[in-house]
Amino acid sequence: MYEVVVNKIQLEAFEAFPNLPFYWTNNPMLTMSFPLGSVYYGNEVRPPGPAVQVLREIVIPRYRGQVPGFQVIDQENLPTLAAEMQASSPVAPTHLTSADGARVRIQYRKGGQTVEEDVYGVVEVSQQPGPMMMGGMQHIFWMADYLFSFRALAGHLDRLSDVFTSMVRSFRLNPGWYSRYSQVSQTMIQNQMQQIRHVGQISRMISRTSDQISDMVMDSYNERQRTLDRLSNQFSQAIRGVDEYHDPLGDRNVELPGGYRQAWANGLGEYIVTDDVTFNPNVGSTQNWEPLERQ
Predict the structure, then answer these.
(1) Virtual CA dihedral for 37, 43, 47, 51, nearest 10 degrees?
(2) Largest Cα–Cα distance of the chain, in whole Å?
(3) What is the pLDDT of residues 75-116, one digit of tens each?
(4) What is the distance between the alpha carbons of residues 4 and 2, in angstroms, rounded to a whole number?
(5) Which residues is 124 bridged to in the sheet?
(6) Which residues of 249-275 are buried (b: 16+ CB within 10 A; e: fewer)?
(7) To pair with 90 at 20 to 30 A between CA atoms, which of 47, 154, 267, 290?
(8) Cα–Cα distance for residue pair 8/222, rounded to 1 Å
(9) Which SS3 state, helix, strand or coil, does residue 6 take?
(10) β pairing state of 71-77 and 96-110
(11) pTM exceeds 0.90
(12) Which of 39-48, 109-118, 156-165, 218-227 has the least mean pLDDT?
């Protein structure tokens, strides 16, 4: 785990957690040899679930389950986070792949004070079909990925959204390490799905690649950085309760109060937001109002 303390006195911190790899299959012979909770090729044997469930039942209990006064006070599905992470995943999907993102807010006691913490994560699932005597078999490799949290004293978490999202945005991966990580990860997944027990080829692959970074890996690296920037903006806007629109009159993007279905602007820098899609501010007005496009 990696923690960055923003304010020690106020218990404000950002924390990143290790990815958690899992494996599951519908092959009863294999599950007899590798029961629930055992390790199969470095992956914990456990069936996949939606991101909210994985955060509540696996991730949070492992990292926060022993803290005093622990309780879950809020949860939210984040389909945009899942889609963004799937598009920029460092490991290319091999067969049917799905992704699901979520946020769970917890509350507990720390240093004699009550704190709140938002835990984020994505569940990525890759399925590989295989032959079986009694029908089709599925190898399911899945991971609780992109796990991190924001923490602050109870009642102060939302106001720190800009600080925390700036910290997320500042992360940069080392390109040399990322190149070798991507290639090794892909090789390991292929080996697992083929049930290859010899890992010598991984060492040979690392030696051959050395410090050479392929264009494909660099493109994936750069795309991940752009994804982090987009996610940071989305987190900040969601927490602050605003939506982003493009103002064609000023040719710029603006943030307006969130939750409305339509927004208008005039050349004086004035804006109108409304839930009434039939409303037209040009009717009965001497100003020229233009509709805005949500970004």
Answers:
(1) 110
(2) 78
(3) 999 888 777 655 554 444 445 478 889 999 999 999 889 999
(4) 7
(5) 99, 143
(6) eeeeebebeeeeebbbbbeeeebebee
(7) 47
(8) 33
(9) strand
(10) antiparallel
(11) no
(12) 218-227
Give percent of the chain above pLDDT 70.
Answer: 70
Q: Give me the residue spans of the domains in the chain.
A: 2-171+222-240, 242-294
CA distances from 15 to 148, 169, 194 (A): 6, 14, 36
Name residues whose C-beta falls within 8 Å of residue 30's C-beta, 6 or more positions apart in sequence.
40
Contact between 90 and 220 under an 8 Å Cβ cutoff? The reply is yes
Q: How far apart are CA 257 and CA 263, in angstroms?
A: 10
Q: Report d(CA 2, CA 115) in Å as an integer.
A: 19
Residue with tokens 């490991």: 91
Looking at residue 259, its amino acid is G
Residue 128 corresponds to which tokens in the numbers above? 């590989």
Residues 6 or more apart in contact with residue 226 via CB below 8 angstroms: 88
Q: Are 153 and 115 in contact (CB under 8 A)?
A: yes
